[in-house]
Amino acid sequence: xxxxxxxxxxxxxxxxxxxxxxxxxxxxxxxxxxxxxxxxxxxxxxxxxxxxxxxxxxxxxxxxxxxxxxxxxxxxxxxxxxxxxxxxxxxxxxxxxxxxxxxxxxxxxxxxxxxxxxxxxxxxxxxxxxxxxxxxxxxxxxxxxxxxxxxxxxxxxxxxxxxxxxxxxxxxxxxxxxxxxxxxxxxxxxxxxxxxxxxxxxxxxxxxxxxxxxxxxxxxxxxxxxxxxxxxxx
Length: 234
Description:
Layout: E1 7-12, E2 15-19, E3 23-27, E4 40-45, H1 60-63, E5 69-74, E6 90-93, E7 98-101, E8 104-109, E9 117-122, E10 125-129, H2 143-160, E11 167-171, H3 182-191, E12 195-199, H4 205-214, E13 221-222, E14 231-233
Helix pairs in contact: 2-3
């Protein structure tokens, strides 16, 4: 597997900090400890759900040394009252929009829940963060509802297919019980990212271990985080 010289820190749940040569990219901060560095910092929130968006992120712009923080937020967050709408360092994005912010390229794909998923190109590396994009197969739903969920997910994956993705963050949600791996496995098989990082599992690390075992023969390298604040270099 090609070394990318990227530092990834697990914050919690779906929250990660990705450090490249020149930038810090923070995705879906919910809880956790984060030390900002003297690098250009880009903060992404995929949708308005409180486990993916925390208004605490706006306090970082007062703590961060120059260069300042840029925020890239799903368009469904724009109605929230605690957003400093007068700031020129906030970019709202909707599904299938593409934005160039400084030297990074941000393309938004859709979700099968709320908001967007992100494909970010920065310092020669492509990073996908799924937000709540997943194959949400709930046992308590009717067969018809689950067929609709499957169709919507596969249609979104078809739109992403063909993109070159070095690092992917994607849900393995234990609430789906035996169906926790449906979306993640299909994503790996269809998109073939270089590295795959499970997320959206709260404190249930067993589901991540199960998924790593399940995918041990995949050409995609699955990375397992076992505690908050853990860092890996890839």
